[in-house]
Amino acid sequence: MLLQILRHTPPWVFALFAVLLAAGLTQLSTRRAGLGRLAALPLGMSAWSLYGTVAAFGFVVNVLMAWVLGLALVAGLVLLRPAPAGAAYDPAGRRFTVPGSAWPLALMMVIFFARYATGVAAALSPDMAASAPFITGAAMLYGALSGAFVGRAARLSRLAARSGGQRLAWPQPLNRAA
Questions:
Q1: Domain ranges within the chain, ordered by starting residue
Q2: What's the start-to-end Cα distance of the chain, in Å?
């Protein structure tokens, strides 16, 4: 049965898996990044997660509420933890030092396989995939995984806020009158 499932998987799904795997592997080593780059991964993964939720279950208030609840709960829990050891913010360079971690890779893989499993479940058992508990659980899971990304980025941004925070503001427009 597993071979049948894999045979009926569109090729773009395998390409997406490879892209996510490569992106996750880059997170394993320590890197320096600005706020925009730091925010790109949580925003991108959250957008993909929300899109997957809406694409699978529709633009329904209860589904969206489950997704937001999952995101808010996990982001809040992650935010309670201290920044990772070795994380730092350089106000002069407006750059974060982010230690390498396997967590982003693991989260990307869980989001990928959760979406894949949801698609397989919908194909194999449409009645189960249309049930309220399945939909609510999947939407909350997608939101919770996004919350982990958002919470991790928010934890790091606190480093900048503690250093004065004024350097986090977007560049100010030039004064044309001068």
A1: 11-164
A2: 72
Helix (H, G, I), strand (E, B) or coil at 88: strand
- 99 in Cβ contact with 30 (< 8 Å): yes
H or E stretch covering 97: strand 95-98
- Amino acid, single-letter form, for residue 115: R
Decide if 139 contacts 60 (C-beta within 8 A): no
pTM of the model: 0.80
Instruction: Identify the residue whose tokens are 């503001």.
Output: 169
pLDDT along the chain (178 residues), means of 10: 85 93 94 89 91 90 96 96 90 91 92 89 88 94 95 89 57 44
Give the integer Cα–Cα distance in Å for 35 and 89: 10
Residue-level pLDDT at 148: 95
Distance CA 123, CA 105 (A): 27
